[in-house]
Amino acid sequence: MNSLPVIAIFDIGKTNKKFFLLDTSYQIVHEQSITFPEIHDDDGDACEDIKALTNWITKTFTGILSQKEYDVKAINFSAYGASFVYIDAEGKVIAPLYNYLKDYPAKLKNAFYKKYGGEENLSCETASPVLGSLNSGMQLHRVMHENPALYKKIKYALHLPQYVSFVITRKMVSDITSIGCHTLLWDFKKNNYHRWVKEEGWEKKLAPVKPSGKAFNIKFNNKTLKAGPGLHDSSAALIPYLAVFKEPFILISTGTWCISLNPFNKKPLTVKELKNDCLCYLDYKGKPVKASRLFGGYVHEQQIKRIAKHFRKHGDFYKSIKYDASIIQHLADLDILKNKFEDSDHLSGKITFEKRQLKNFKNYEESYHCLIHDIMQQQFISTKLVLQNSNVKRIFVDGGFSNNSIYMHLLAFAFPQLEVYAASVAQATAMGAALAIHTSWNPLPVPADMVKLTYYEPLPVM
Asked: What residues does the Carbohydrate kinase FGGY C-terminal domain cover (predicted)?
């Protein structure tokens, strides 16, 4: 029996850690998933269990190589961003993987921005809104000032995607998709590290930058194969769409965050856009991708718990609710909802439903339609921010909300001038990580039918 040629992908999310094998036609032939309880860092704040993650990666890959039915030709990695793993000269992890939601000291933050030209100026140059610990450069800055003994021991600060690559490859590298992701590290105008990185002497603490799409040769447990340097997950999820579609589009990648990605908006970030939580990513070829973010998935997750408890339904009851225009009309007649989405150039990010009283709804269906409508009000503004100044004709939605008929119908109503599609790529992030090093391991062309589309007409919703 011949072994099946495959690529192995580790896809490390904030909650779920996944492992896949994909064949040369990019069909998933093996997958597994695990979650780890959070632990606490030295300040008592919740954080990732980096030791458990490391052990799982090593054990999982060792196990798959022992299975004769698969011939692993290559491996690549994707992971969430804004997180550094600190490595000493011997390759040992020497600090917790601090949570990117960890509170950042105001005094330290203010002194930093004052030293390097102010928040507005530095944000524009680095395409990074002021986000505290979500700016990973600020995490290393904090270590330098609050824990100089640790800082001195650091050989390299590796972003999480590059750390999980290091676990298997033992190569310490940096990757442009991680560096160019609201880190404050990259000067988008000069296409290099920002001057403050050099002035602080940090170039020695950041591993050499390697091309995201170039694999290197490694040997693991006597198996020779190609390995990629790892990718930031948002950038990885965009790759299948760029591989298949050439006409301009926006991708709304929905999960905890609803991120509107426009690879075809070449205009530099403005101060107004930055203040509305817009930023730029760098894709795996080093090109800027304008993006806006909405914490819509998180709000949805919290509010469906509240709705289910109030109406005494199980937690997944929302999955059975289909779009009903008469409910939207009824809520509009009661002045609970307005009959159109408000056009605004200011994204509050606040979802009105969080303050609504559930007693004002007669059933679960009404309250849930209202929740999605309230999320869409902010989604409309968020997506429009990156739609401007581009010739986009289509919107693709992937992730959780692509399966939500209420969300999709309301999005089509919000943008009647565009074609709106629910898009389905089996595990888009993992697929993107595989495609990034396609030419290194796969002799076949990229499948043209990789992305499945469902069109939503801009029907009247009221």
From this structure: 247-305
Q: Which two tokens stand for residue 340?
A: 């159109």
β-bridge mates for residue 39, sequence order: 47
Give the span between the Cα atoms of 105 and 442, in whole angstroms: 48
CA 303 – CA 368 distance, rounded (Å): 9
Asked if 438 and 231 touch (Cβ cutoff 8 Å), the reply is: no
The residue type found at 339 is N
DSSP letter for 203, please: G
Residue 9 to residue 61: CA distance in whole angstroms: 10
Alpha helices in 246-295 (DSSP H): 271-275
- Nearest alpha carbon to residue 165 among 271, 16, 12: 12
Cα torsion angle, 218, 158, 47, 298, sign: negative
Backbone torsion region of residue 357, taken as left when φ is above 0, otherwise alpha when ψ lies between -120 and 50, otherwise beta = beta
pLDDT of 462 over the 60 cut: no
Q: What SS3 class is residue 247?
A: coil
Q: Tell me, what's the pLDDT at 350?
A: 87
- For 252-294, write each residue's pLDDT tens digit: 988 888 999 999 988 888 888 888 888 898 999 999 999 998 9
For residues 91 and 86, what is the distance between their CA atoms, to the nearest angstrom? 9
C-alpha–C-alpha distance, residues 126 and 188, integer Å: 6
Residue 221, classified by CB atoms within 10 Å of its CB into exposed (0-12), middle (13-18) or buried (19+), is exposed
Q: Tell me the H-state helices in 396-445.
A: 405-414, 428-436, 438-441
* Nearest CA among 181, 180, 172 for reference residue 229: 172
Q: Tell me the domains of the chain and their CATH numbers.
A: 4-229 (3.30.420.40), 233-462 (3.30.420.40)
* 3-state SS, residue 273: helix
pLDDT of residue 153: 97
Question: φ, ψ for residue 73 (rounded to 5)?
Answer: -90, -30
* pLDDT tens-digit series, residues 93-139: 999 999 999 999 999 999 999 999 999 999 999 999 899 999 999 99
With CA atoms as reference, report the closest residue to 348 among 318, 387, 317, 374: 374
- The whole-angstrom separation of Cα 338 and Cα 335 is 6
Angle between helices 405-414 and 364-387 (to 10 degrees): 40
Instruction: Enumerate helices (H) and strands (E) in the chain, giving the number of each.
Output: 16, 20
Per-residue CA distances from 341 to 117, 207, 338, 378 (Å): 38, 46, 7, 9
